[in-house]
Specification:
- Pfam families: HTH_3.
- This protein has 127 residues and is mainly alpha-helical.
- It has two domains: 60 residues, no CATH class; 65 residues, lambda repressor-like DNA-binding domains (434 Repressor (Amino-terminal Domain), Orthogonal Bundle), CATH 1.10.260.40.
- 62% of the residues lie in helices and 0% in strands.
- Helix 1 packs parallel to helix 3.
- The chain is globular and about 40 Å long.
- The N and C termini lie far apart (44 Å).
Length: 127
C-alpha cells in the first residue's frame, strides 16, 4: 500500500526535496523498505506539487538566502549533510538556518559566500 504524502506549501516542498536528496544519498542498497516507501511517496507528492502549483507560477529567482542555498543544493545534487561538510559546519546548524530556526552567523555567511559565490550585497540584503 502506498504511503500518503501531501505537500501544502513551497517551504514544505523545499523541505521535502531536501529529505528526498538525503534518502537518495544513502545509496539504494542502504535503504530500508520503509525508506523506499517514504521516498516513493515524497517523490510522487513533489511531482504533483510541481505540476499543480509550481508550473502555474512564472519562474522567479530565489529571494531569500535559504532559497538560494536550496537551489544550489538542488542544482548540484547535494544533501544537507554533504553541503554542511563542504561549508565546514554542522548539519543541525545548516538545517536550523534553512528552516529559519536560527540566524546565520558570520562564519556561516563567509562559508556560503566562498562556496556558492554569492553577491555580498545579496547576502547582506537577505540576512
Amino acid at each position: 500500500m502506498a504511503m500518503d504524502y501531501a505537500i501544502n506549501s513551497e517551504k514544505h516542498y523545499h523541505e521535502t526535496m531536501v529529505q528526498i536528496y538525503d534518502l537518495m544519498n544513502k545509496d539504494e542498497e542502504n535503504l530500508t523498505e520503509a525508506d523506499v516507501k517514504k521516498l516513493t511517496a515524497m517523490t510522487s507528492a513533489a511531482e504533483r506539487f510541481e505540476d499543480e502549483v509550481l508550473e502555474l507560477k512564472p519562474t522567479r529567482q530565489p529571494n531569500s538566502l535559504p532559497e538560494v542555498i536550496e537551489l544550489f543544493m538542488f542544482e548540484n545534487k547535494l544533501s544537507q549533510a554533504r553541503l554542511a561538510d563542504e561549508l565546514g559546519i554542522g548539519k543541525p546548524k545548516l538545517s536550523q538556518i534553512l528552516t529559519g530556526k536560527r540566524k546565520p552567523d558570520v562564519p556561516f555567511l563567509k562559508a556560503v559566500y566562498n562556496k556558492l559565490r554569492l553577491d555580498p550585497k545579496f547576502i547582506m540584503d537577505h540576512i
